[in-house]
Design goal:
Shape: globular
Radius of gyration: 18 Å
Helix content: over 70%
Number of strands: 2
Length: about 260
């Protein structure tokens, strides 16, 4: 249901894509605070949402470093407000959890937006990322259900199996390699290594979100899609993979062109 919207907004880019990223980030912030604090606490949501809006405007003005700094300020402010006006929270270290929610939502905005900011390769980089994450999820689900076997991490996720994890990894590498080679001619060996890393990271992001939900006794982070959870549940693996993709591209080619740094070697 969400794939056509994601692909279309990524294709057009610009403020449309930034707006979609900001909406998703805002929903994630709302779900995080509702999950961790049992409600969308204004001490976290207000400074976090303000930071997300400011960061969106800064990225739109090609000021990536300032946008990252704005998210950091929002996180510090949220943590400070929780500390200054304490209440009875279900979480230990509430300031850390509050600040962490702003950072987590900030990743949902910054990582895909920075990748898409490259006018030449931004869309291809996102297609590469979409292919890896979606193929990893789909293949892990299908193969895990078909094969079964030992659980991957039963204390965190009672349904994920080693067979599903390996199947998802194979699917993610195959899909990512094909998309990268077909779209920009990335060497298959390089594309395969990158896809392997990002598929592993995506599965790690899924497990991280599962651990947070288990910590606070929730099955789903939200109820956007009946039976499939909320925005956090849909984007957990993508957020982790997008963050690592931006870091790889930025280290290789600079923050001004992370999509080129990710795909061109």
């Amino acid at each position: 249901m969400l794939a056509p919207i994601a692909i279309a907004s990524a294709y057009f880019g610009g403020w449309l894509f930034l707006g979609m990223c900001a909406l998703a980030a805002g929903a994630i912030l709302w779900e995080w605070t509702s999950l961790v604090f049992r409600r969308a606490d204004p001490r976290i949501f207000v400074p976090g949402a303000a930071a997300l809006l400011a960061a969106m405007a800064l990225i739109g003005d090609s000021q990536a470093a300032a946008a990252i700094g704005m998210i950091a300020i929002g996180a510090l402010l949220a943590g400070g407000l929780v500390t200054a006006w304490p209440r009875r929270y279900p979480a230990a270290n509430p300031a850390v959890w509050g600040a962490g929610g702003v950072v987590y939502a900030g990743i949902a905005l910054l990582a895909p937006a920075l990748l898409r900011s490259d006018p030449q390769l931004g869309f291809s980089a996102l297609l590469f990322l979409f292919a890896i994450v979606w193929a990893t999820d789909i293949c892990a689900y299908l193969i895990g259900r078909a094969v079964g076997g030992p659980l991957l991490w039963p204390d965190v996720s009672p349904k994920k199996t080693w067979a599903g994890a390996i199947g998802g990894l194979i699917g993610g590498v195959a899909a990512g390699t094909l998309v990268a080679y077909a779209s920009v001619g990335t060497r298959p060996v390089v594309a395969g290594i990158l896809a392997l890393v990002l598929s592993l990271v995506a599965q790690g992001g899924d497990l991280f979100e599962s651990a947070v939900k288990r910590r606070f006794g929730a099955k789903d982070a939200g109820s956007l899609i009946p039976g499939h959870g909320g925005v956090m549940d849909r984007l957990d693996g993508f957020l982790a993979a997008a963050l690592v993709a931006v870091l790889i591209g930025s280290v290789h080619h600079g923050m001004a062109a992370p999509a080129r740094g990710l795909l061109i070697w």
